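ERR on first pass: missing label on line 2. Operator R.T. fixed the label and resubmitted. Corrected input:
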Amino acid sequence: MPLLPEGEHPNAPAVGMEVPTGTLELPPALAAAIGPFAGDPVAMAQKCAGDWGARFLFLSLAGCHPDGGGLSVSFGAAVVREVLSSTPAPVIVGGCGDEEVDARLFPAVAEAAGRPVFLSYAEEKNHRLVAGAALAYGHGVVSWSPIDINMAKQMNLLLADLGFPPDRVLIDPLTGGLGYGMEYTFTIVERIRLAGLSGDAALARPILCHLGDAWKAREATDASEGAWGDAGARGPRWEETTGLACLAAGADLLVCRHPSSVARLSGAAWR
Amino acid sequence: MALTAIDIYKLLPKTNCKECGQPTCLAFAMQIAAGKASIDLCPPASDEAKEKLSAAASPPLPKVTIGTGEHEVVLGDETVLFRHEKTFYHPTAIAVSIRDDASDEEFSSRLAAIRRLSFERVGQRISVDLVALRCASGEAGRYARAAAAAFEATGLPLVLLAPAGPLAAAVEAVGPSRPLLAPPPEDLVPAAKLAAERKLPLRVRARGIEGLSVALADARAAGASSLVADPSPETPREAVTDATNLRRLAILGRVRDLAYPSAFDLGGGFPDPFLAAALLVSKYGSLLVLDSADPADLLPLLTLRQNLFTDPQRPIQVEAGVYPIGAPSGSSPVIITTNFSLTYFTVRGDVEAAKVPAHLLIADVDGMSVLTAWAAGKFTGESISKMLAECGIADNVTHRTLILPGMVARLSGRIEELSGWRVLVGPQESSALPSYLRRLPPAAFLPVHA
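pass 2 clean. output:
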């Protein structure tokens, strides 16, 4: 069981933070905490890995998405290079989500990265491109599936078929925020972890949960409902509760958006 | 795990002697498997059969009830360790504390705050279940009056956290409301006798699972039987570890002497109560006492509980049909989505947020989300066109334009072909609906002259 002092837990779960790029619409509670840094990925990266205690960074290149700011691929690669040289913290680089742009972005990022990173994410359609770029430059890959244990397994088998080293693969099972699908993620994380522990090699990979979806919940940001209590406190609580449920299910890596979640969740990232 | 009829049949004498009132041993085995008959009805049964079947018949974790009527709280009665194995049956009960030494004014405003910890979410009521009354005054009379006032004001069952004297006085005042007696460890035996005499549930508190095995035996010896076990951990990690081990002992180990629902007092200076509470809702906490009455704490915890204790096999769904949002007219937009309650409430919330009156068509897809329903072949060009024709929307609007969820844009051609309606592809995410709806050109909804 996760969280319990039994069996070997050589590695405590790692709590990291998202470093955004491009145009941002931050809810007030989030803007208050990360607003001054969110526009400058390098400064944000240093702040996350420094004062805010993130053990790894998820550098999202959503800014390169046509609707996310339309930053160029070369700009994205440059940001990766600068962030990697500005902090020793491990980094996962997230694509922008647009198929055509990512087809050029992932190879550029793989080449620009001065040290090994993880590329996020490979899924059925693009896994040859992403895995190829990662293999060529010694990076890892995050394998994505839509809250479906069979597709999670199939993704890892596809990567294995490409000869991708299993110890450089993380599983992203798609994390629904509290109240908006979190229980589906909770059950899939438990099932993936149990399968991996009881001998299913294709599922024996660390599991990564993005907590950002929690901020899409009305209850996390809506200040008009007086009965729900102070929205400033509720937002971070919503992300924290999503993270605690993921830890209880057995997640190995959590990506937070609010600094207070990093501190709070690290208090439950037990070895 | 529960034994099947065949497993039980193998243990029976198989002589069809009918002493149990059943025509054959196999029929009797089926009765036992369904929990409708007990092995005691079969005198010739072997000792092994009696021992195995009496344990197997009752659930691995006994049921404990607190309170009565609509506010009754049920703890325990669980059969699996992971929700995906079947389901969890009884959500973690949450009690918020109040002190009997508060001034009248503080006391009533605190009760009002506790009453407000009740929310409507996805068509369900989620709320705090109990009031935990702490005896800080040490006076039996004052404590009993506070108990009566708390029950009177909230109607919620009480957790009576008090030494023997005040506890007895409170039971006189609110006994019929079936409170949970929660004495300190040193007053366990007198409280157990009181619980036995009044047939009330009792919280047994001791240090760790070893301490509990002794204290639970003492409580049973004093005649109490409806018990919840509090291993009084000192840290959140200890709490989750104890809760998990107690549940495993019951469900996997079938250790009857420790098989009780778990209870945790996360108030009174317990470190990081919110973190502990969220982890215990996720992992085997049956009853939690919290000192916080802040909705910013309780709403996420109650939502977490609502999520994890939903039966994975039966997603919550809403009635299919046409739902007017705001006061829609003949030229208001028509939007379609599916009858999974989370989808319905999310989309409805976003349409309301857009402040654009609209007709919301909810398709019957056995409670799946848009993408899942499409993948399962329940949300198709055919089914949507059929609904457009049969649900009567054509009489409510003068235009023939349908807004389709962006995730299933590929269906638009088929729908236009089959239904004759014009299809606009809406956003991928419901959260983008407000901006999408506000930017819609009115020309899209001009009357058509069929």
